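Hi support team,

I submitted a single chain yesterday and got back a structure, but I'm not sure I'm reading the token output correctly. Could someone confirm the output below corresponds to the sequence I sent? I've pasted both exactly as they appear in my results page.

Thanks,
R.
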Amino acid sequence: MTAAKRPLAVLFDLDGTLVDSIALLLACMNHTFEGRAPRPTEDEWIAGLGTPLPEQIAPFMTSEDDRKQLLARYRDFQQEHHDSLMASYPGVTETLAILKEPGHPMGVVTSKGNAMMDRGLRWMGADKYMRVAIGFDSCHLHKPDPFPVLLAVGKLDYTPAESVFVGDSPHDIIAGNAAGVTTVGALWGPFTRERLEPYKPTHFLESITGLPALLDRIARTTAG
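Hi R., thanks for writing in. Yes, this is the structure output for that exact sequence:
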């Protein structure tokens, strides 16, 4: 008799996937670079989502001291306005509850600093569902490198073949594909299907509420 396979592990990006923090992140950027030139456009800033904040700021800094000041300005604004500018995507917490029932181990993989990652998870009530949370401070390499995805998979004691990574940005898809996990392009975030298609996610989803059914299909496809 063949042993039953265990439920797939499910990893999520945070910003633009589990939480709608786009208004917050753009407000932080606009505040940080107010009155400066050169400065990023909103489209450029969104394109960098999924990578660490220091990397997003680096092209626009003039010195190491300037970098520190920009980071402090951004983070201070984010701390002050986090809760008021955050928003929820429909069906996220309900879907996490559904996934918990059959025993899917879940985790988050983000390039956001760990303190703000934890705050965001608590704000949306997702912290109780996450068995592992990998943020900027958790490791020395970050998306689009596959290392943080593999770190999360390992902490769950799973293999890439048993794992799925749901993310909204090209950086998520690149990292997940390189890690060897099944990737899901989250189309409820700021990136369109056309923006994600060149990076070849394994699947697309229009809404997170379709994730339980998709996981069932993936499990059936890989059975045996």
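A quick pointer for reading it: The two ends are 12 Å apart (CA to CA). Let us know if anything else looks off.

Best,
Support desk
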